[in-house]
Amino acid sequence: MAKLFIRNVFLLPLIVILSISFFIYKFHNNSALISQLVSKAVFHREFGEFPPLKKGNRWIVVTSVSQPTEDVKRLAAIEDWNLVVVADTKTPLDWKLENVHFLSVAYQKQLPFTLVSELPYKSYTRKNIGYLYAISKGAEWIYDTDDDNKPYGLGLKQFDYEDQVSGVRFLPQNASGISQRLFNPYRFYGMDGMWPRGFPLEHFEKHTNGNNSQVLCYKMKRAAVQQGLVHHDPDVDAIYRLLNADKNNGLNVEFNKFAPPITLSVGTYSPWNSQNTLFHKSAFHTMFLPTTVSFRTTDIWRSFISQKILHLSGLTVSFVSTNAVQFRNAHDYLKDFKNEKQVYEDSGKMIEFLHNWNCTRNNSTVLENCINQLLVDLAKEKLWGSEDARLMGMYLEDLKSMGFKFPKLVGNSTQDYSASRDETTRDVNCRRMHLEFDLLKPREDQSIRRAEQKLNYFGNIVDWCNETGYSDISINFPSPKQLAKQNNESYVFQKDLNSVLLAVNNYPWDYGMGLIQRLYQPYFATIIFCGSWYPENFQNLDKTTSIMHPINYIHMNPAEMSKGAFAYHCVTLVKELRLNNVQGYFLMSDDAVFNIWQRIDYARVHHIHGSNNLYNSWYNHTQYGAKAAKRVLEIVKTTNDTEIKTTWQKFDDGLRKYDYHNLTEGAEAQMLNHLGKSVSDFYYIPTSEIEYYANLMRIFYQANLFLEIAMNRFIRSVDHQISLQGACSYLWVEEDRQHWPDFYNQDLVALHPVKPSLFKTAGEDRKTYCATVIQTWADIVFGGSTNYTVKGDDVKEVYLPE
Ligand SMILES: *[C@@H]1O[C@H](CO)[C@@H](O)[C@H](O)[C@H]1NC(C)=O
Ligand SMILES: *[C@@H]1O[C@H](CO)[C@@H](O)[C@H](O)[C@H]1NC(C)=O
Ligand SMILES: *[C@@H]1O[C@H](CO)[C@@H](O)[C@H](O)[C@H]1NC(C)=O
Ligand SMILES: *[C@@H]1O[C@H](CO)[C@@H](O)[C@H](O)[C@H]1NC(C)=O
Ligand SMILES: *[C@@H]1O[C@H](CO)[C@@H](O)[C@H](O)[C@H]1NC(C)=O
Ligand SMILES: *[C@@H]1O[C@H](CO)[C@@H](O)[C@H](O)[C@H]1NC(C)=O
Ligand SMILES: *[C@@H]1O[C@H](CO)[C@@H](O)[C@H](O)[C@H]1NC(C)=O
Ligand SMILES: *[C@@H]1O[C@H](CO)[C@@H](O)[C@H](O)[C@H]1NC(C)=O
Ligand SMILES: *[C@@H]1O[C@H](CO)[C@@H](O)[C@H](O)[C@H]1NC(C)=O
Ligand SMILES: *[C@@H]1O[C@H](CO)[C@@H](O)[C@H](O)[C@H]1NC(C)=O
Ligand SMILES: *[C@@H]1O[C@H](CO)[C@@H](O)[C@H](O)[C@H]1NC(C)=O
Ligand SMILES: *[C@@H]1O[C@H](CO)[C@@H](O)[C@H](O)[C@H]1NC(C)=O
Q: Any stretches that span the bilayer, and where are they (predicted)?
């Protein structure tokens, strides 16, 4: 029965299995070990002063064989993090630094861990003692790093500490082969042809992270291990370094700065190291660094074994964007190469073995028994020496002596993070998505790459226009370098580059995505298509409107979108992706035209016409109006969720503070008021407001509140800017819609609607579009016309015609 139970887990390898509530790890304050340590306090004078514990149970562990480096000094100074430095025989005996738990060799021998006397000297693996020490002091988090690595940017704050997070998961739909289970973080973070040390090279050529292999979850368990990326000299093997590193400057790699964290689902693997890695206590039993393999193998082997053990409990590993920097001394790459021999030879075998390994111990419902079996089986397979099976066993015994409780093995009754297949529910936790950034080589100039794309894509559009007989787009296009330089100097284009463009369709996407990609993609951090996305239903009619791969999207099913009633949910979802370093988010519907050269105030919410106080017929007559507004109030009244309460308070305060239309009344009165309508096919939310937006709009979404009401109330509660030409941006009546070219001009920020479906054939409609929008684009973006001084600016909010 037990065997069967475990097998079931492996029969469903893609199903992510979690059991959160059972994990209770308690370190008994009065455990034998702690008291022994305390009784050894008398030794402390002999071994130097030990600093007082900082609050928060957070520990950094490094080894060092030299005097305190600048990086170690920096680590020692981080607020709320305790630092342990593990010495080896080469470490200077007079090593001294304030605020450090320095474990000299002599002191290590006093520690009551059975492992200490068995670990080799002159070995990086003495770090294991540092882990045990930190755990004995009650660590909840251990940051594993080295004395030549420095936190950078957000540093340790880049990691997640909340139990529950939203975000992206790597979850291949087709994982029939080991190659599909492998994740290459460097590719995900935008580097071309680069792999982390430990990536099985026999699977590298042609390896991608797959097409149908990501989901976006609203709520998921935070990963037990988080690996941060490293700037400048990230961890690669000697082969990569031999081929690519500059003798003097190293690699100088800069990963894509926008890419979000990504969690690797159960059953998927990537190597990770001991240089910039955070362990939650639920992964402490997987921290052992093996001693029978080389220095350049030990942390990689640990990473694979750790992933397997974590998977047995439904726990996972994630990657987070760059939060440390390393400048590597030029050294002998051939020596590294020899040291990495086992990594090259056995990584693939290791992963394959671990993935197929089943726990068959008689008593296999207990994780500890399974781990003990695995340790022995690894030795049988000659993937490590039997000494390591013994030492890791001792490490686990030491953990247990401190009261460590192993997580539970989990079966099938656990949480499932696969993408929702129910296309009729509005309550979706995980959904299909895809996010991939342009791949660059180290040192490649992205501004020139983008300029080339702008020219090539626009060239497609010129051809597409020419099919209609419109051949006036005859400016002399600049060279990529000239264009890159011009665009570098444009304030607006630089701002756009740090913004995300969300293209939203109220109905399933069926035509024209390629046109949007070709017009806008090279100008933004990324374009994400949001809405119902069924690739099989998409028409690739010609090469200009056909899709370019990769295509970034977030799938919202037709019930969630409800013909656009909840299109605002797209911005909430894109926030939940947790992109980094984005300045703001533009939302544009598929049938809007966006004049990207218009300068708006990037620090504030931008809405085309603002929060006018018109009668909104939706309010009285649909399930998305008054009824939904009352449901919002009901949710807020009955909730115990502090986030909802805080958001609602902010909403109430904002409505009173900004006092649009002299409505001094707060949230409740404004929800019950039928006045207020904001048509919202185009708007901009700066990152400073995105969290508030997502929290408030999720409440509105849950209550079924219609777009024009939800957006109206949101923008009334924030400082916002309106387009100078706002009133002319929406064509309300059918007759105007038919004559949209009469309304289009370069001074608008956006115009709606201009239906792309009109341009399917090379007829008059497409020709007119080319003569207006495309011609203007050519003049301004490529022709260097600076005749567009009108900016989005504050104007009095106008009343729109009904
Ligand atoms: C592990 O169990 C799975 C499912 O029962 C089976 O397909 C696989 O062959 C087993 N692996 C080994 C090494 O026995
Ligand atoms: C899954 O991948 C394997 C190997 O790459 C391939 O042969 C198979 O056709 C794929 N299955 C599906 C359903 O795409
Ligand atoms: C993804 O799918 C598209 C279309 O089928 C294909 O052109 C592309 O090569 C695929 N990409 C990967 C990484 O498999
Ligand atoms: C499992 O262990 C129990 C008691 O330890 C023993 O009675 C039983 O025969 C064992 N079963 C197998 C299949 O080894
Ligand atoms: C299985 O192991 C647990 C803990 O190690 C023990 O409490 C239990 O009695 C064992 N069950 C069997 C059938 O051996
Ligand atoms: C989960 O396991 C139980 C018994 O352990 C079984 O009855 C049930 O069918 C399983 N469910 C799934 C979805 O496999
Ligand atoms: C535009 O189309 C005409 C035929 O309609 C063709 O002669 C001409 O070469 C085309 N121009 C370009 C730039 O493709
Ligand atoms: C544009 O600016 C970036 C960053 O400031 C720089 O790296 C790049 O070389 C510039 N491009 C050109 C063509 O000057
Ligand atoms: C809409 O409802 C409000 C109150 O619920 C009412 O005051 C108003 O007259 C109604 N408007 C119309 C046009 O029915
Ligand atoms: C909020 O908490 C109260 C008491 O603690 C409880 O009665 C109520 O059901 C909770 N409400 C919700 C929505 O969970
Ligand atoms: C708000 O009140 C001020 C001063 O009383 C007035 O000048 C302004 O027109 C009012 N605005 C609106 C939109 O009613
Ligand atoms: C500049 O644009 C304005 C309107 O946007 C237009 O009236 C004017 O003729 C343009 N000037 C040039 C030199 O193109």
A: 9-27
pLDDT in tens, 355-398: 999 998 766 678 999 999 999 999 999 999 999 999 999 999 99
Q: Name the β-bridge partners of 228.
A: 320
Check: CB of residue 503 under 8 Å from CB of residue 530. yes
Give the whole-angstrom CA distance, residue 211 versus residue 223: 23
Collect all residues with Cβ–Cβ distance below 8 Å to 384 and sequence separation of at least 6.
290, 292, 293, 301, 378
For residue 553, the CA-to-ligand 8 centroid distance in Å is: 29
Could you tell me the pTM of the whole model? 0.90
Which residues on neighbouring strands pair with residue 593, listed in sequence order?
Answer: 751
Encoding tokens for residue 223?
Answer: 């990963």
CB 232 within 8 A of CB 291: no
Distance 783 CA to ligand 12 centre (A): 14
Contact 686, 584 (CB under 8 A): yes
Distance CA 501, CA 527 (A): 5
- Strands 225-232 and 317-326 come out as parallel
Measured from the Cβ of residue 386, the count of other Cβ atoms closer than 10 Å reads 14
pLDDT tens readout for residues 465-487: 999 999 888 778 999 999 999 88
> DSSP per residue over 705-724, as a string?
--HHHHHHHHHHTS-EEE-T
Which atom of ligand 11 has the smallest separation from the CA of 660?
A: 13
Q: Give the pocket of ligand 8 (CB within 6 Å).
A: 445, 447-448, 481, 484-485, 488
Classify each residue of 232-258 as buried b or exposed e, where b means 16 or more C-beta atoms within 10 Å of its C-beta: bbbbbbbbbbeebbeeeebbebbbbbb
Distance CA 540, CA 525 (A): 25
Q: How far apart are CA 258 and CA 48, in angstroms?
A: 45
Burial zone of 420 (CB within 10 Å; 0-12 exposed, 13-18 middle, 19+ buried): middle
Rounded alpha-carbon distances, angstroms, from residue 641 to 449, 577, 650 = 47, 22, 15
Whether residue 603 contacts residue 686, with contact meaning beta carbons closer than 8 Å, is answered with yes
- Which among 274, 266, 344 is positioned nearest to 307, based on CA atoms? 266
Rounded to whole angstroms, the Cα distance separating 298 from 294 reads 6
How far, in Å, from the CA of 181 to the mean position of ligand 3? Answer: 17
Instruction: Please state, in angstroms and as integers, the Cα–Cα distance from residue 49 to each residue in 96, 126, 139, 194, following that order.
Output: 10, 21, 20, 45
Q: What CA–CA distance (Å, rounded) separates 651 from 716?
A: 9
